[in-house]
UniProtKB/TrEMBL annotation:
Protein name, per record: Beta-ketoacyl-[acyl-carrier-protein] synthase III
Region (ACP-binding) location: 258-262
Superkingdom of source: Bacteria
SUPFAM superfamilies: Thiolase-like
Domain notes per entry: The last Arg residue of the ACP-binding site is essential for the weak association between ACP/AcpP and FabH.
Source species of the chain: Youxingia wuxianensis
Cellular compartments per GO CC: cytoplasm
Beta-ketoacyl-[acyl-carrier-protein] synthase III N-terminal domain location: 106-181
Residue ranges annotated for the Beta-ketoacyl-[acyl-carrier-protein] synthase III C-terminal domain, each copy included: 241-329
GO molecular function term, any single one: 3-oxoacyl-[acyl-carrier-protein] synthase activity
Length: 330
């Protein structure tokens, strides 16, 4: 089986870390509630930055890490639910900024599972032999869609970007991706309703359009998403391991989507794995949606703990609902 080699990683966090205490003057909350219920202490929130700029900064950090010429990138896959523009795409803006003029550019939006979906796509392109070097960038400015009057969500999210550069290699790789669209109304951000001189009929309604949530502000049914994630995460890891022909116990690291430390603890327990194997940076960065896994991956790779041949599993879940896991041999 053709797998992938992670050649380089990078990350970018905007501004200074913002402590939980900063939220106590905005909504009724406390540092203690946020820390004990989520594991979050700090997050970065953009001030004057853009999603494309954060993504390009993370990509440049990865290019520098691997000593890779941007002209050698054949494909850029950018993941975001908080892009700057409906069009042009985030990947095109990143391509321009880093000077990767030989790259095809694709954007995906699979919410917090986006990085795992992007990795799976990259592996398929690489396995076909059509491309040699793929840059994956996940950049999220959740502050753009966060409702800072809603204490149940505003304390959770952070802004940031993570990147990784991959090539084909004779290494173990297996992925398991999935979605459950019936949960589409558990986590959403509405767009503005379309207006045209030809509009005569009312919009076809769905559970989201019927709500009176402000356009572009994120709604989450936290308890339902929590329930979904504690079952989807271990299941996705088990299925990816099964496809890779290994057991979860043979994994050296789990790099999970960083939404809530309690979700990770419950999933690790279900998998019968020690918490030491979970790579967690939620205390520093909060939930950065699809950027959370590549940010954690970069921190792990730069800590130089990872040895050749070790196996890690990236696993994500999020709006859609979507989920996915991929086993990678380092
Ligand atoms: N400070 C103080 N109290 C709060 C806060 C806050 N920031 N937020 C909620 N509360 C209160 C609630 O109002 C509630 O009060 P009540 O009992 O008087 O009604 C109480 O705390 C408990 O609320 P719960 O929602 O039951 O709290 P819970 O322990 O479930 O934690 C949380 C909430 C952190 C949101 C949790 O449900 C969670 O992590 N859900 C999953 C989130 C997730 O995984 N998202 C992933 C996708 S994100 C993406 O795709 C962008």
């Amino acid at each position: 089986m053709i797998g992938i080699k992670i050649c380089a990683t990078g990350r970018y966090l905007p501004g200074e870390p913002i402590h939980n205490e900063a939220f106590t003057s905005i909504v009724e909350t406390s540092d203690e509630w946020i820390r004990t219920r989520t594991g979050i202490c700090y997050r970065h929130i953009a001030d004057g930055d853009t999603t494309w700029h954060m993504g390009a900064a993370a990509a440049k950090s990865a290019l520098q890490d691997g000593g890779i010429d941007p002209e050698r990138i054949d494909l850029i896959i950018a993941s975001s639910l908080t892009g700057d523009y409906a069009t042009p795409s985030l990947s095109c803006l990143i391509q321009k900024e880093i000077g990767a003029q030989n790259a095809m550019c694709i954007d995906i939006n699979c919410a917090c599972s986006g990085f795992v979906y992007a990795l799976d796509m990259a592996r398929r392109y690489l396995a076909c032999g059509d491309v040699d070097t793929v840059l994956i960038v996940a950049s999220e400015m959740l502050s753009r869609i966060t409702d800072y009057t809603d204490r149940s969500t505003c304390v959770l999210f952070g802004d940031g970007a993570g990147a990784c550069i991959v090539k084909a290699a004779e290494k173990l790789f297996a992925s398991h991706l999935g979605a459950d669209g019936t949960g589409y109304d558990l986590l959403y951000s509405k767009n503005d309703p379309p207006a045209s001189p030809f509009t005569k009929k009312p919009l076809i309604e769905d559970a989201i359009s019927k709500t009176d949530r402000k356009p572009h502000s994120l709604f989450m049914d936290g308890r339902e998403v929590y329930k979904f994630s504690i079952s989807a995460m271990p299941q996705a890891v088990r299925k990816a391991c099964e496809k890779a022909g290994i057991t979860p116990e043979q994994l050296d690291y789990i790099v999970p989507h960083q939404a809530n430390v309690r979700i990770v603890q419950t999933a690790m327990k279900a998998l019968k794995l020690p918490m030491e194997k979970a790579v967690l940076y939620i205390d520093k960065y909060g939930n950065t949606s699809s950027a959370s896994i590549p940010i954690a991956l970069d921190a792990l790779c730069r800590s130089k703990q990872v040895k050749a041949g070790e196996k890690l599993c990236v696993v994500g879940f999020g709006a859609g609902l979507t989920y996915g896991a991929a086993v990678i041999e380092c």
